[in-house]
Batch of 4 targets.
Target 1
Amino acid sequence: MTREEHLAWCKKRALAYIDKGQVQEGLTSMMSDMSKHPETANPMLDQLTVQLMMIGSLSTPAEARRHIEGYN
C-alpha cells in the first residue's frame, strides 16, 4: 500500500468514528493507524494530537474532523 493509500484509509476509519460523535475514538484510531505504515508514522504528531486533546482543542467533532483532514 502506498503512503497516500494508507493515509486515505486512516482518515476514512477515523472520520467514521467522528461521524458517530466518537471524537476520542476517532483521534485514537488515526494515531494508531498512522503508526502502522513506515511513511506515515510520526511520534511528534501523535504527541501534538494528545496535547491538543488534553487542553480541549479537539473536543468537538468539527475540531477533530479539521485536525484529521489536515493530515497530509
Target 2
Amino acid sequence: MSDNYLMVHYGELGTKGENKKAFINQLYRNLTHRLKGFSSLSFQKTRDRIYVRLNDEIPGDVIPVIQEVSGIQKISLVEKAGKSIEEIREKALSLIKNEEGKTFKAEIHRADKTFPLSSYDAACSIGDYILDHTDKVVDVHTPDIVVSVDIREEGSFIYAHSYPGAGGYPLGMNGKALMLLSGGIDSPVASYLLLRRGVRIECIHFAAPPYTSDAVLDKLKDIIARLGDFQADIKLHVVPFTKLQEAIYQHVEEPYCITIMRRMMVRIAEKVAKNCNCLAIATGESIGQVASQTLVSMRTINDVTNFPIIRPCATLDKIDIIAISKKIGTYETSIRPYEDCCTIFAPKKPKTKPKISECEYFESSFDWKPLLEESIEQINDVVFHNGVEISSIKEEGEKQ
C-alpha cells in the first residue's frame, strides 16, 4: 500500500475570506463524487489543502480525473513526513534519488510558523544533505529538479511534480445558467468555461424538423456525454422551432431573418430559464464571428429581454475556441457534418447592423406569439446522468 498522497491546491477560492469554508466544502463534495470510482482512495480536508491518499491507486489514473474538477489550481504528488528536519531531509533525499537530472534546488513553504527553522535555513539544511549524499549540484536559477517542501500543521509534504488544475470555482457555487447548445464548436466550449467558473448548466436546443435531422440530436447527446465529466446531471430542453421559423421567413425580409430568429430564441430561452431557476442565459457567441454576433446585432437581439445573457467566448479568437474544444474533447464531435436551424435557413446577405425599430416593424407584421407559446408547450426534455441519457420527458404545457 502506497504512502503517497495527492495534495490538491485551491484556486481562486483561497481568496474568499469568510465564504472560503463554503467553497472548500463544495469542492470537497465535488472531488469525492468525481473520484468515487476509485475504491481505495481516502481523503482529508483542511482549510488550505485537500489530501488524497492513493493507497492502492495509480497516480496516473487519478490525476487526470482531478484535473477536470473546477476550483483547483494544481495537484502535487507528495510524500508525507513528520516535522523534524531530519525526517524531512531523509524524505527529500529519497525522492530526489529517483529523479533524472543533475541540478536541483530546494523550495520551502513554511505555513506552520512554529517550525523552528526559517524557510531559508531549512532549504540550506535540505540542500546540504542532498549534496552530501548524491552527485547532484545546486542551481537556484534553472534547476533540473525542484524539491518542494510544504510544512503545515498536519505534517510536511515533499514533492517534485505538480500538475495543472482546471482553475476557477467549485461547480455549484455560482448558480445555474441556461446554455443555448447548437452542436457546433463554440457552445460546448462556452459550456465548459461556465462550468469551470462554478456555474451549473441546463441546455436548450432549437430543432427544425424535417429541415434538420436526428443526427444533430445525436451530436448533442455525444457532446453532453463529454460535458458529463464536468457536471454529472444535465437536462437538455429540445424546442420544436419549425413553425415559428417558417413564419419568420414568410414575413420578414431575408437580411433580418437571423436577427428576428435570435430574438425569438432569447424570448423562449428566458421563459425556460425562469421556469428551471436559471439565473442567466448563456451562448457560444464570439464578437464579430458572424453577422448575428456583431455588437450591434447583440444589442438588437438583447433588446427583447432584461434577463442576463452571458457570452463566455465573447473575446476569444476562433483558434482559441478550437484549442479549448480539443482540450476538453468536444472538437471531433462538433465538426461532424450537421445542419441546425441557424445554418439551414441562413440568409445570403444577413444584416450586420440591424436596427431595433426595423425588427419591431417586422415582428408587428405577423402574429408570432401563439407560435412562440406553442414551441414552449411542446418542448421535449432529455435528462442525462454522467453523460448517459436516462429519460426523455415530453412536456404538455407544464414545465418541471
Target 3
Amino acid sequence: MAESSPDEEAVYIGDIITMDAAAPAAEALVTHGAWITFVGGRDAALTRASPHATIVELTGEQALLPGFIDGHGHIGLVVLFERSVDLTPKPVGSISSIGDLQAALGAAISEGPPENSWLIGSNYDDALMNEHRHPTRDDLDAVTTECPVTVVHASGHLAVCNSAALATCGISASTPNPEGGVIRRRPESDEPNGVLEEHAWMELAAPFLPRPIPREGIADLGAAQEKYAAQGFTTVQEGFTDSAAMQLLATANEMGKLFVDVVAYPS
C-alpha cells in the first residue's frame, strides 16, 4: 500500500460477505486514503466514518467483490506494448481488416520516426479481420521499408515482421526453425513470409525489440497496473519473466511503485 493504515481508525471488515443470496449484502464502505476501513450496513458506516473518511454507498447495481487474481497473464508484455500502435479488432478496437491495420501503422509513422527506430503494433487478431489471415511481410512492407516493423498477435504467441525487421533479427531463408517454433515461408520457397510462430517469435525476434529506458519503464509499469486495477485485478501475473522485466519489477518494488501484487515466474 502507498499509505500506512490510518492511526485514528482500526481497520475493520464488518459483515461477512458471501455469494449466498440469503446472506445480507454490504450497503456501504468507508475509505480513508488508500485503505478500506469498514464494510457493512449504511447506518454503521455513517457512525464509523471519521471527518476525513469517504463513504461509498453500494446502491442499485453496485456491488463490492474481493480483488480478482490473474491466473495466467503477462504484465511484462503490457508494459512492453504500452507505447505500441493499438491494433485491437472490433468491437473493442477499430481494426477490421488488413487495410485498417496498415492505416493505423501508417498514421503512427506520419506522426514522426518511431521511438528507438522500431514500429511496434499489438493485439491484432486474424480471426476477427475480414481476410481471416495473418498479415505478411509484404503487407507490412507496403507501410514502410525504412524501419523495422513488427505486429504482435493478441495471443502473444505469434508475430509478423516486415523485411527490415527480419533483416535486423538475422532471419533469412537459411534460418532453420527453432525447437518449438515455426518460421512461415513463402509458397514453394524457404524465404520467410514474415509470420513467426511461438519460439521463432520469442527467441529469434522478441529479444531485438527495444526496451523502454528506466524512467519510461517505471511509468509504463504504472500505466499497466492501472489497466489491471481498473478491471478489478489486485494480483497480476508475469508468467514468463525475462531478466529485464524482473529488474524492472524489482526496481519498482524498491521505489514503492507496485500497488498491485505481482506473481513472477522467471523464464
Target 4
Amino acid sequence: MKKLAGCSEIKGKVKAPPSKSMMLRAIAVSLLTPGKSELLNPSSCQDSLAALSVARSLGASISSGMDRIVISREGEPESRILDCGESGLALRMFAPVASIWARSFMLTGSGSLIRRPVFMMEKPFRDLGVSFFSENGYPPVQIKGPLQGGSTEVDASVSSQFLTGLLIALPLMEKNSTLKIINLKSRPYLHMTAQFLENRDIKISNSDNREIFIKGNQSYHSFAYKVEGDWSSASFLLVAGAVGGEVEVSGLDLKSLQADREILQALDKSGAEIIVDNSWMKVRKRRLESFEFDCTDCPDLFPPLVALACHCRGMSRIQGVERLRYKESNRARSLIEEFTRLGADIRLKGDSLEIECSGLKGGKVDAHNDHRIAMALALASINASGDIFIEGSECVAKSYPDFFDDFARIGGRVDE
C-alpha cells in the first residue's frame, strides 16, 4: 500500500519509460529473426519480462547488458507451456507466432489474464490450419500448428492484439494471406505493428483497415532497434503537470503512431499549456475547463483523463466506455467506484463517463490489480484535501515499475 499526501506541488523533469507495446512487438520479431537482434532502451516491466520468458520457451537465447538486450534464434521450442504472466498482448500476439511450429502449445497466465477474451482467435486459426481450444473463449489457450497462409476474417472489435500476431507470423508462410478485418478498434495499434514490420522490409498492403494482404515467403533480418518512449505511461506524468504545476518529459517521439499520443489533444482541450521541443515537452497548469474526448481508439487514456477531469471546471465527458470491459479490471466500474470514494461525481451514461468535481478528498482506495487505475489514483492526490491510501499499488510494475519513484521526483508526496 502507498500513502500519498495531498496538496502536492508538482514541478520537475523525468524521462518517459520505454514503450512496452513496442518492446513486445520487437521481442516477437526478434524470435523469428535468424542471427542476433539488439533491443536498445529495453523495457523491464512485468509484461516485457513475461514476453522474454515466452521467447526463451520458444527457443530464443537472450542476454542483457548495459541498457540493451540481445535476442538470438538458436534452437527449437523448449516447452509446450507458454506463461504470459498477466499480459494480454503477449498471449494474443504469441499465439500466432507459436503456431508456426508443428507442435502443441498451451498459452496461459495468471491474475486478470484468465478473464481476457480470446474468442477472436478461433475462426482465423482454423481457417489457417491451426487447431484451437480455449475455456469458453478465455485462457488458457491450446493450439497446434503449423500455421498456413490463406484467407480469413478477423474480429477486431475487442482488441487488435491477435491481428498483430498474425501480421508478424504470416509473412513467413509459403503462400500469400488475406485478412478481412471486422469492426476494427484501436486502429493506431495496427498501424504501429505495420510500420514496425515495414521498417524490417516486410511487405504488407492495407486497404482502408478493412482488408490486409500479406505477401508470403518473406523473411526477417537481424536488426538493432531503440525502443521509443511510452506515451501510455507518460500520459500520467503530463496530466500531473497540467493539474499540479509543471512537468517536463523527455524521450517521447512526437511522430509516434502510439494511440496515446492523443493525450496532447485532450490536454489542449482542457486548457493546459503545452510547450514542445525536439527532445522534450512541458505541460504547465492553467485554468482548466471541462472537455469532451473520444477514447475509442485509445482506451488506456481513460484513467489519466478521469484524473484530469476531476480538476476541471464543469462536466467533462469521455466516450468509448465499451473498450474498458476487458482490461486488467472493468475499468469503467473501477474508476467510478474509486473516484466516487474520493468525492468526484462520476457516472456512466451510455458509452461515456461524465465527470464533475469540486475538489477531491483523502481516503482509502483500491487499485483493483490494475496498473493504470493505481496511477490515476496517485494523480488524485494532487490538490486533494487529505491523504490517499492506495491498496495494491504494487501493480504498477506491470507497465511502469518506477512510476512512484518518478512521481516523487516531480513533487508527489509518496510514502509506504
